[in-house]
Amino acid sequence: MAKGDPGASTRGRRAAPRSRKAVTGDPELVQLLTPAGERIDSVTGPDGTEYRVDFTDEEYRGLYRDLVIVRKLDAEATALQRQGELGLWASLLGQEAAQVGSGRALRAQDMAFPTYREHGVLYCRGIDPIMPLGLFRGVDQGGWDPNEFKFNMYTIVIGAQTLHATGYAMGVTMDGRTGGENGEAVIAYFGDGATSQGDVNESFVWASVFNAPLVFFCQNNQYAISEPLERQTRVPLYRRAAGFGFPGIRVDGNDVLATYAVTRHALDNARNGQGPTLIEAYTYRMGAHTTSDDPTRYRIASEVEAWQAKDPIARMKAFLERAKIADEGFFADVDEQARREAIDLRERVLAMPDPKPVTMFDHVYPNGSPLLDEQRAQFNKYFDSFEGSAH
Questions:
Q1: Do 270 and 380 sit in the same domain of this protein?
Q2: Region (Disordered) spans which residues (predicted)?
């Protein structure tokens, strides 16, 4: 599948099941693919919107490929950290469908503001997956050109990126870059824990009153580090949007098809001047919050096992098999491609050179600074005082 729009092609479409409501146990949850891999043609959301996707067989296979590769690269990064090659890693294990579905729903001109876990969205935006590993290895500042990839740099401060996204989206409106399919929309990613931060709630206020072309995408993985959801809110997170004056919707975050449909609809509403939307992607963090975390201290094994039965990759594979869209040869080829890409990523990470200490002064200001020059000179003098030093 091309890395642009998985719904762009209209040829070779396969007949889908009749339209009906998904049986999820949650009437407010939008779902197009059950955990058993049963395809639902369309679902009417609580807001009355009909959600559906219409992909070719190749596009369905492409989504599966994305899911598998993203998980494999993420697992490789976790292994690198355990082996001392990265200082830290924030795994996305279990959240692949939320990220791939929303990432593929973005149009080329749309801008994304991530946290520190959106490796799947980064992959869908065509960014080399080694980029964030430089940050977590400590050899660079994790920087790439946000304008080139329409993907802002990783944000470590919880919730701060929602303020950045809101300001950017307000600028999109002021610059007249909304209206029609060519209009620009913005998406801000954050977790359920961030919804307790003042930054996020302030962003809701500003985005609402300025009718910003912004989608707030909350990956509710059930835990704010170690704090469960019930300690954070008395109502479903998506309902908070109503208090700020814009719509909210909950989607099955382990369903890549529903995530795509809901996100594309919200983005198109935003780009056409209909203001912000809050999407709560209901999913689960199968691994640790980061590699410095021990989730066994605050959750039980049976809970993890229950969510493993809803695994987003197994679900998509079951659908492909049920619909006879893919065979064992295809699945083997995808696994092999993922393995090769993971090996390549590992080799490139290990080959990363350690930066010279003085380079910390580079790129602080675009045109330099007298004060910075003075600090650099003082540092060089100090560093030269050590025998055998090298800047």
A1: no
A2: 1-26
Select which of 71, 104, 271, 285 is catalytic: 285
Confidence (pLDDT) at 22: 40
Q: Catalytic site residue 298? A: yes
Catalytic residue among 13, 14, 82, 298: 298
Both tokens of 196, joined, read: 């307790």
pLDDT score at 15: 39
This prediction's pTM? 0.89
Q: Are residues 266 and 391 in the same domain?
A: no
Q: Check residue 366 and give its pLDDT.
A: 84
Per-residue pLDDT at 389: 61
> For residue 327, what pLDDT is reported?
97
Q: Are residues 231 and 377 in the same domain?
A: no
Quick check: is 289 catalytic? yes
Q: Where are the beta strands (DSSP E) in the chain?
A: 29-30, 42-44, 50-52, 111-113, 186-191, 214-220, 223-224, 227-228, 248-252, 277-282
Contact present, 233 and 200 (Cβ < 8 Å): no
Sites in the chain below the pLDDT cut of 70? 1-25, 387-391
Domain span holding position 321: 29-350
Among the listed residues 61, 117, 265, 289, the single catalytic one is 289
343 and 366: one domain? no
Please indicate whether residue 11 is annotated as part of the active site. Answer: no
Residues 377 and 248 in one domain: no
Asked if 317 and 368 sit in the same domain, the reply is: no
